[in-house]
Amino acid sequence: MVLAIALPVLLALVVAGLAVAARAGAFSPTVAAETGPLALAPVDAPDATSAGCTSLLAALPADLPGDPALAGRPMAEPVQAGTKAWAAVPRPVVLRCGLSRPQELTPTATLTDVNGVSWLTITDGTPQPTLVTYVAVDRGVYIALTTPTQIGSGPVQSVSDRIAATLPKRPLQLR
Question: What does UniProt give as the signal peptide span (predicted)?
Answer without folding.
Answer: 1-21
